[in-house]
Structure formats: C-alpha cells, structure tokens
Amino acid sequence: MSDDQIILHHYPQSPVTEKIRTILGFKGLSWQSVIIPRLPPKPNLMPLTGGYRLTPVLQIGADIYCDTSCIIRELENRFPESSLLSATKGELDWAVGNWTDGPLFRDVVTVALVEMSPNMPPEFLADRGPLYFGSDFSLEDIQAKYLDCLANVRTQFSWINNSLKTTEYLSGPMPGLMDAFSYYLVWFLRDRMAEGEAFLSQFDHLVRWEKSIRDIGHGPHEDMSDERALDIAREATPQTASFIDPNDPLNLALGMKVSVEPTGGGPAVSGNLQQLTLDRVSLLRSDPQVDQVCVHFPRLGYKIRAV
C-alpha cells in the first residue's frame, strides 16, 4: 500500500463527509472506504483517534486527521498538483468554509432535523441534539425555529445561486474548495426535506451547479474493513516532523503532555505535542491496538491545554 494511501472512516449519510467525498472526486484521488457506526460506541475508531468521535476521520498510515478543515489542508498539502484553492486569493476560501460550517450549517441542520424528527430514532436525536444545539436543547425549541431557519437558508442559498449566474462553479471555470464547502449542505437538505426538490427549484443556477458536482462523483474507491485499517496503522510509523511555532502565544514545549478538546464540547484527546503551527496541532499517542499514532486537529475550533 502506498505511503499516501487515503483511508476515510465515515458513513454514507454523513453530511460533512460528503464535503470530503466531493473533494476527493474533484481531485481525482483514489481512496479506501471504512464504514463506521453512526452512533457511539465506535470501538475500532477510538484506538486511532484517542477519543475523538466525530465523522469523518482520515487515515494515512499511522497519521490520523480529525475534522474536515484539517483533512482538507492535508489533502491540499499532499496533492498540490490538483489544488482546489482559488488561483488568486485561495486563503479566502477558508472564510467561505467558516460561513458554510457556521451560520449556514446551523440553519440547514435545524430545518433537516425538524423534517426528519417524525421518523428519527430517539437515540439518534439524543446523540445529535446536544452535539448541534447544546446540552439543554429540546425538540420543541428547535421546531419553534423552523420557519426562521428555513427563511435564512433561502436567503443564503440565493447568494450561492446569484454567484453562479455567470460562472460554472463558485471557484471559477473549474470546481474548487468553495464549491465543496457549499455543495454538501445542498446535498444534505435535498434528501431530508419532504419538499426538498420544490424548495431547491427556486434556485435554477444552484440546481444546475448541484447536478454538475454530483456528476463528478467521489473518485475511485474500494471498501476496507475497520480491522484492516487498524492493522495498517500498527504496521506504519507516524510521518509528522516535530515542530513548534516559536511565535505561538501558548508557549507550549515539544513533547509536552497536552489535551485537545473541541470548543463546542466533546471528549478531549491527550498525547505528547509533536507539532504546533498556525493551522494544526498534532499529538503522538499510543494504544495497544495500533501502537504509536499521530493525531492531528485544526487550531480553529479546538482548545489546547497542558495536562
């Protein structure tokens, strides 16, 4: 297996994974598909991540990448010949991602959850509700926001639609990060709304663009078992160089025991600090099932604390 072999731990219905699957298709990369449970426990994922439970997770050998922003940056770093950054102001693509993963995501998820609630298993709502809306969420409060959030989605989808009037893709003549950042929420909402097709038909340019992206697909991929993915991690060695940004304000030292925790809540992952940059924090950690792995997180959206 190639040192750059991509292993994606995900499940088919995951909206944020659709963003990564779309990017893999844009870049024309081949990958291995490991299907994981939608709900905890995830016994053959935890040895790789050290407790991080969100979907998706990218594995390349013994290096484990958590959170889509970290995954995308790694794919861009490893495969620059098919870069999806805008030619002139690529870093602004990430600002679009912060919008689609922030305000637009919350509005879309609220609409989708209300639409799905009559047929949603109670255990799924009990798991996803606190994740998306906080520990004190209630379905009644979410339902009360439905029309406001639907109006917000309509406004924001109109921005996408208007941006596509004179161009094939948001990124220009070829698809790029801005397209993937926006597309996954259209994909998610279409199949979750009872009247999704009628709602989206208001946006003719968006619908044309959506079909174009869907036709590109996810790139060549094959199924892999989660047990085989663990074997690959155990047989490999982390390839991440040790480095600490000397200007980082946290004043953390190489090898220091630290924890990384999502600012929105969730389990903390602990390990020895291997790399700290403007965009990433990387921890070396050991597990009996995989020996040593390096687990990577983005800086934005995560708290780093000395243990």
TrEMBL record:
Pfam family, one: GST_N_3
Domain GST N-terminal: 4-83
Coiled-coil annotated spans: none
InterPro entries: Glutathione-S-Trfase_C_sf, Glutathione_S-Trfase_N, Thioredoxin-like_sf
Domain of life: Bacteria
Gene3D superfamilies (alphabetical): 3.40.30.110
Protein name: Glutathione S-transferase
